[in-house]
Amino acid sequence: MLELPNRQMPHSTDAEQAILGAMLLDEKVCEDVKLKLQPDDFYHHRHRIIYETMLILLDQNIGVDVTTVTAYLQDHKRIAEIGGVEYILTIYESVATTAHTEHYVEIVLEKSISRLIINRAQSLIEQGYDPETSTQDLIDTAEQQFSGLARLNQGSDFKQIDNVIIDFIKNVERLSQSTGEVTGLTTGFTALDNMTSGLQNNDLIIVAARPAMGKTAFALNIAQNVAKLNHVNVAIFSLEMGADQLVSRLVSAEGRIEAHRLKTGNLEGADWRSLKIATDVLSNLGIYIDDTPGIRVGELRAKCRQLHQQKGLGLVMIDYLQLLSGSKANGGNRQQEVSEISRMLKEMARELKIPVIALSQLSRQVENREDKRPMMSDLRESGSIEQDADIVTFLYREDYYKKDPELNDNIVEVIFAKHRSGAVGTVKLAFRKEISRFENLVNVPESAHIPDV
Questions:
Q1: CA distance linking residue 275 with residue 256, whole number of Å
Q2: What end-to-end distance do the CA atoms of the chain give, in Å?
Q3: Intervals of CATH 1.10.860.10 along the chain
Q4: pTM of the full predicted structure?
Q5: What is the pLDDT of residues 382-419, one digit of tens each?
Q6: Please, which of 119, 157, 342, 393 could form a disulfide with 388 given CB 3.0 to 4.6 Å?
């Protein structure tokens, strides 16, 4: 353990002695303490040895008292390390009651976390002086080292079912007062909302497709609709396109302006009016765009946490997962890196209590099958993604593969291959590629040639 010059690490000798003394005095205390403290939480070496001995005795169903602890330490020739039998007696005799043991446990745990923070901070300082350590690596290390510390102070105890049921009933009553079937964030797509009841908090949602299926347009439309219809802030991380290209797609979809006209500036009279209306609408939405290429997942999470704290955050969309970078701790193993990325995205969804949408690539093996509809096995580095995701959807356009002039086009199948809290199946939407816009089938104009379904 690191000690700073002329300064002792935070600790409480009295609290540590009081806990050990209470365990020697009353065996009933032992199980409660065992659930909350580890040997390393004790600052003093001899206290760690005594506590480790008590845990061993408990595991062997041997009662914990002065006699059994002393005998074990003597048998294993460790009695001298803790100051002899006299020290065990001193601890035992210093405790008159076990009434305040829980408070002493909180003190010891708090001091232990303080020491952990100091040690990790000192380690970061040492890395900072290393000329071979980049600033980004330092930031990633800090994110990993400190992101979970808050949870150490909030142990998750058993929840008695009657208390959980009370909260459950309150939630059902709240949902019953809402109109319609949508209990999460509405996407603006009726069939999609019927399948999911809206985008739910804590969910990691994967949208995967082969190129040209429209997955980026689909996710952008959802992000745009969520911001507009639910009045929440949305963060978009665009690792493939710059912010200007992404905004061009948003304007095209919102104003129903053909993308090539925006790209060339060849707008007609009605287009200018549509451009003005679309930009006015988008300017008033809480959409935040980050187009940092190759952003590390730790940095992404830190940015989302900051936005959530400062302005509030309702949804995160990432285009796309395979372009994210993990930490260097994976030693160049891409599969481990993707596992880390998907795990951290799921943790972020739970921490911020928001849905997170991540786009994903599919492997080329789709093209080798007669039926081109994607399957779970087509996900790139699929194992961890499939495990961490709450929803996995695939996009499929039959007209892309079947060059048949008789085949009505513009239909996209949204295939729910995994749905942790609901049904799997397929819903259909219209895709107007020229304006980067998905629409409900019933709302598509006749010129789009959408068949009756």
A1: 9
A2: 69
A3: 13-152
A4: 0.66
A5: 567 878 889 999 998 887 777 666 665 788 889 998 89
A6: 342
